[in-house]
Specification:
By secondary structure, the protein is of the alpha+beta class. Helices cover about 20% and strands about 50% of the residues. It is built from 3 helices and 16 strands. It has helices spanning about 10-25, 60-70, 210-230, and strands spanning about 5-10, 25-30, 35-40, 40-50, 50-55, 75-80, 85-95, 100-105, 110-115, 120, 125-130, 135-145, 150-155, 165-175, 180-195, 200-210. The radius of gyration is 20 Å and the shape is elongated. The two termini are about 30 Å apart.
Length: about 240
Amino acid sequence: MNEALEIIKGKNLLDKLQEWIHTRRFCRVGIPNTDYGWLSLLVGLQRVEHSYYLWMDQIKGFEKALSSYSSNQEILIEFVEKDGVTCQFKTRVIEYLPKTFRIELPEAIYRRQRRRFFRIKARVGTEITFHFKRGEEGRSMVRDYGLGGLAFFIDQPHEIQIGEELSKMDLMIPEEEGTLHFPIPKGMVKRIEKHSTKKEVCALEFIEISEAVQEQLMLHIFKEQRAILRKTGRI
């Protein structure tokens, strides 16, 4: 069954693009039918006579890669909105400048009717701390995570119940330069799953997260995806 899409056109399309430009929301720029993908920003909307054009921030190595894989300079741009819904459109590059490149205004933006979150397998040492309603503090190792939630291991069976709210969470991801911290005010336990070990896995949905933290987490996830593709030789 095809997923229902909302089609954004006309003035609503221009308003949506202006919103992304004003809020400096990052997007993924990809080459259709390849694994190539970069992070970038829309930096301007320009009207020339009766037409509009978009300007995007410079991407290192982008022009060379696009010329190798797309004869018509077509690209796919995807935004993840703060509610987890993705918006995407195809367009073409028409001019490169030293710090920006110009693209055609798309005919439409396609907004999915359903949330779609990317999931990342957690690095060794990734942890989450949280507080129960009864005031106790917990700390667990994370299995995987995404913009909408995460899964972590439960040391003692039945210590967490489905539907239980956890608060004051801190997702901690180790890196070479130090530890990344993503504060998440509130989440809800959606599932308890069996694991191959004797432990259980708790699937948690974020029900309260600031837009700034969500943006930082999205950037981290995109970078992790790119690093994985680079290791596997797919980019």
